[in-house]
Specification:
The protein is mostly beta strands. The chain is built from no helices and 11 strands. It is globular, with a radius of gyration of 14 Å.
């Protein structure tokens, strides 16, 4: 059972960079069968896919957010991270990290971490 744990500040000021980290257990982020993603849910809205990092470090982003989204990884710590620059109050959401096993067609979710963008 893959376990995911998000961590990061719960409050970010407008125009700053939001940085979150996902720590992965019971799977290795360099395993070819997995894809590692960030997803968010703003208050009262549906889930929004932000981007993904593959086992080889390649990244893909939502076209609408690509200009200020970056996903990176630290293989030594088995973690992957999200950076969202120039945030506005519209970036307020619960942020989830997600793992998808393409061979088993199974996905796993972190518990989510709420982030508020406010001055």
């Amino acid at each position: 059972q893959v376990q995911l744990q998000e961590s990061g500040p719960g409050l970010v000021k407008p125009s700053q960079t939001l940085s979150l980290t996902c720590t992965v257990s019971s799977a290795t982020i360099t395993t070819s069968s997995y894809r590692w993603a960030w997803i968010r849910q703003p208050p009262g809205k549906g889930l929004e896919w932000l981007g993904v990092i593959a086992y080889d470090g390649s990244t893909y982003y939502s076209p609408s957010l690509k200009s200020h989204t970056s996903i990176s990884r630290d293989t030594s710590k088995n973690q992957f991270s999200l950076q969202l620059s120039s945030v506005t109050p519209e970036d307020t959401a619960v942020y989830y990290c997600n793992a998808y096993n393409v061979r088993a067609s199974r996905e796993y979710w972190g518990q989510g971490t709420p982030v508020t963008v406010s001055s």
